[in-house]
């Protein structure tokens, strides 16, 4: 189902399927796609949760916002985050347990604003988030990995000459604004990575990543995991040996599906304490 303001898809569970544990409202799983992701790609992940009796919302924010607007400190993704959370009220599913599945940095950049709204926005502070899965992210200031990701996206959109020009402009922008000038620019716009390292969300998190990922460094994910565990939060990891960026489900379908479903069930069994709003 589509909306003119937000290009999303919502899928409701088969009425014959019981909600997980049969003790709560049907959970709502929100999938935040990677840069350049198409809805049919997310549909494969959607099936994992729909088969568990969940309502699933699929959404991928514009890659231009993640690669360019965020790099210049423009918080355009915040509006997308707000519109996405408002869907829960539009469909009257705001009282259901909420579960996020976030892909790569494109998803994480949107997720950072969702977390901020959950803590600070009066309408959203009552939403009950039970857990988050991070697939192939988050990554820190990896210029080479970012160029690889952008090149993969541009391949299907532009000709070779224009693609090279955009890649050069992007690399210069990242080096200047996100590396050389970052001690200054972070004062008004911290990177998504630094924000998520000190995020106070108390619900459990599962990190799915690969040692063979050439876009998001496994070391970046491991540093994030270590930083989150220092706060005493429940953090789980599943490491894949040979799968490429956001390709773990394709390479290890059984392992991936089991990890997501088991984590979902555990989050529903042991929901976190509600977060306290800050107006």
TrEMBL record:
Pfam families, per database record: DUF829
Protein transport keyword on record: no
Name this polypeptide is given: Transmembrane protein 53
Native species: Microcaecilia unicolor
Spans traversing the lipid bilayer: 160-181
Family statement drawn from the similarity comment of this UniProt entry: Belongs to the TMEM53 family.
UniProt superkingdom: Eukaryota
Compartments in which it is found: Nucleus outer membrane
Keyword set, alphabetical order: Membrane, Nucleus, Transmembrane, Transmembrane helix
Membrane topology: Single-pass membrane protein
Keyword RNA-binding carried by entry: no
GN (gene name): TMEM53
GO CC terms: nuclear outer membrane
């Amino acid at each position: 189902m589509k909306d003119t303001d937000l290009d999303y898809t919502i899928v409701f569970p088969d009425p014959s399927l019981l909600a997980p544990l049969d003790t709560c409202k049907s959970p709502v799983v929100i999938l935040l796609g990677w840069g350049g992701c198409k809805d049919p790609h997310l549909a494969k992940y959607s099936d994992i949760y729909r088969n568990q009796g969940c309502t699933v919302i699929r959404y991928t924010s514009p890659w231009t916002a993640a690669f360019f607007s965020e790099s210049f400190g423009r918080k355009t993704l915040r509006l997308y985050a707000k519109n996405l959370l408002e869907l829960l009220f539009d469909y009257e599913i705001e009282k259901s347990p909420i579960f996020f599945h976030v892909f790569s940095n494109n998803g994480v950049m949107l997720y950072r604003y969702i977390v901020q709204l959950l803590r600070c926005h009066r309408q959203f502070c009552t939403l009950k988030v039970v857990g988050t899965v991070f697939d192939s992210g988050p990554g820190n200031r990896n210029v080479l990995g970012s160029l690889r990701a952008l090149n993969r996206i541009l391949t299907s959109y532009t000709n070779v000459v224009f693609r090279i020009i955009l890649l050069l402009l992007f690399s210069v922008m990242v080096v200047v604004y996100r590396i050389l000038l970052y001690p200054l620019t972070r004062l008004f716009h911290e990177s998504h990575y630094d924000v998520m390292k000190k995020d106070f969300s108390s619900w459990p998190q599962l990190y799915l990543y690969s040692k063979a990922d050439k876009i998001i460094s496994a070391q970046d994910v491991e540093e994030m995991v270590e930083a989150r565990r220092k706060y005493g939060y429940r953090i789980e990891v599943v490491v894949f040996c040979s799968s490429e960026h956001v390709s773990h489900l394709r390479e290890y379908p059984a392992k991936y599906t089991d990890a997501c479903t088991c984590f979902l069930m555990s989050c529903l069994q042991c929901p976190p304490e509600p977060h306290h709003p800050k107006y």
